[in-house]
Amino acid sequence: MYVHRAESGHALVAGLAAVLAEPPDDPFVPDLIAVPTQGIERWLAQQLSHHLGAGTGRLPGWCRQHREFAVMSAGQDGICPECTDGRLQDVSASGIDTPDPWWQCDNCQTKFADPEGREPVHR
User: Fold this and answer.
1) What contacts 122, CB < 8 A, 6 or more positions away?
2) pLDDT of the residue at 67
3) Could you tell me which of 78, 74, 116 has the C-alpha nearest to residue 96?
4) Cβ atoms < 10 Å from Cβ of 9
5) CA dist., res. 78 & res. 110, Å (int)
6) In contact, 122 and 109? CB cutoff 8 Å
7) Are 89 and 79 in contact (CB under 8 A)?
8) pTM score > 0.70 for this model?
9) Is residue 93 over pLDDT 70?
10) Domain positions in the chain
């Protein structure tokens, strides 16, 4: 484990972004970043998005990676990453091909296209 310290958080962000930009040897081993509060967590995520941003080509940016993983793991588009709980796993395993609005979490504002081609609906 490595501990990095500085008087200002801004001084640490560029170094952390450089570490996270390098792909790990084992992609299933998570990088752990400890912060004291959720406010600092949000600030750090925003600062890292400025440094890491969108990847080359069609690679996702820093803040989209969790959503991209949720979409890939379910094999569907338009799924809220907060909805990837037991409901999603059960439905995904059942072989349903079209996402339904009830897949959304209560706080989600994701649009879902109607399977018959009508306008997207909001929950």
Assistant:
1) 109, 111
2) 44
3) 74
4) 13
5) 7
6) yes
7) no
8) no
9) no
10) 9-52
Whether the per-residue pLDDT at 56 is higher than 60: the answer is no
Q: Distance (Å, rounded) from C-alpha 36 to C-alpha 59?
A: 30
Calpha distance 6→58 (Å, rounded): 34
Determine the residue type at 120.
P
| Residue 63 predicted with pLDDT over 60 | no
Q: What is the Cα 37 distance to its own chain's centre? A: 19
Residue 93: which of 67, 74, 115, 66 has the closest Cα? 74
- How far CA 63 is from CA of 1, 11, 75, 100, in Å, comes to 25, 21, 20, 24
Where do the H-state alpha helices sit in 1-123?
Answer: 9-21, 38-52, 65-74, 86-94
Name the phi and psi angles at 119, rounded to 5.
-60, 150
CA 2 from centroid of its chain's CA atoms: 25
φ/ψ of residue 92, rounded to 5 = -60, -40
Mean pLDDT throughout 57-61? 51
Is residue 76 within 8 A of residue 99, CB to CB? The reply is yes
